[in-house]
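FAQ: What does a multi-protein file look like?

Like this. Sequence, then tokens, then the next protein.
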Amino acid sequence: MTQSAPEALKGEDWAGEMGERWLASLDRFEGMIAPIGAALLARADYAKGERVLDLGCGGGATTLAIAEAVGPNGAALGLDIAPMLIAQAKARAAAAASPARFVCADAATAALDEPPFDRLFSRFGSMFFEAPVPAFTNLRGWLKPGARIDLAVWAHPRDNAWMMEMMGVVRSHVDVPPAVPRAPGPFAFEDLSYLEAILTEAGFGAMEAVAYEGEQPVGGPNATPQEATAFALASMAAGRILAEQGEAVLAAARADLTAMFTRFHREGEGVMLGCKAWLVSAQA
């Protein structure tokens, strides 16, 4: 086993490296989390004419769906800090002749020249703020009084086999510094009491949460074990950690990841591993 430096788990740079990684595997990322996004959209149940802000919109798939739901008299605005993802989202909207619009900005500090929104939506885009209370306070200023927010956030890693199985393999090859609880990142809001405290301090109330539990296809629907391995190594922080240890460690980890994913592969579905997320709503 090779010792990894603590800085190997530095926060995601969504305007840079992580944005490029997401863009390079956009279809696989979106295919992997699409069922959770669909569940959050169904829970939000948008009405015609509503104005909706999509926080951390990525490649714009959810914003396009929201635009269709709210119709021509509504508005769907996707916001993301990653310029390469916003460029892709704009291209998708143009190709689909969608009225969805997109802005590249840091939601924690930006001021939008927009009328206030009726709703806010975020599929895994709200957990990365360095200072979450000021960020959510800023977001609240973009909303009408009483506006509803709908967020999907990951539950604890132990409830997400897709993460636990991958990290089990990674840790057999390299020492990984332990995660810092509540640090910005995918699992920052695993503790709902922490999220509720943030929202309350930022001026939101009436938080409710339901669990989404199921399986998700690692690397997207119908991915082979080899494709799931390539996706994990190219797109996730674990791949960067392993690559820093040299080709021998990376090759051994690649073989072990492929063997692990093979155990969970089902024909016609892909590499199916358990997942749990919280679908959270609150009122401004």
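And here is the next protein:
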Amino acid sequence: MQARLVPYAALSQLQVAHLKRLEVRPEQLDASGDIESALYTLLNRPAPGIRGFALLVDDRPVAFLLLKRPPFLPLWADENAASLHAFQVDWRFQGRGLGRACLQALPGVARGAWPEITQLMLSVDPHNQVALNLYLSQGWVDCGEAYRSKFGYERKLVLALSTVMA
């Protein structure tokens, strides 16, 4: 199994068609949203401050994420960061280490998109223990509260790119 994280713009028409069928479990929708919403964010008003990336396994998209830079950074994010959004792994492929593969490839693709960034940031529901454990196991650091959501305060996690090998 070969997995690689590639820019949305590099996908073939067939890969885009497969990506549009990506599904997450209903209980994950609050955290990640669905693929339609993520692609709408990416494609409705194309801008250099929003980039989409798909994880391909044997050339088939099985995961997707968005990265944002100014002017699309959330208020809780540092201006030298790219923030991670809409991170979703198709439920039919979960439990195979693909979320980890995305996170491991993320610093490289983020630097490729925006060489000036110094960190990656995200927010996560503190009750989403699976996601929180995944991020922390990959070197992300809990830096306090990000913002108040309907479930309480989201945790702000940061990955300093200076600590990640290029």
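Q: Is there any per-entry metadata?
A: Some entries carry free-text notes. For the entry above: The radius of gyration is 15 Å.
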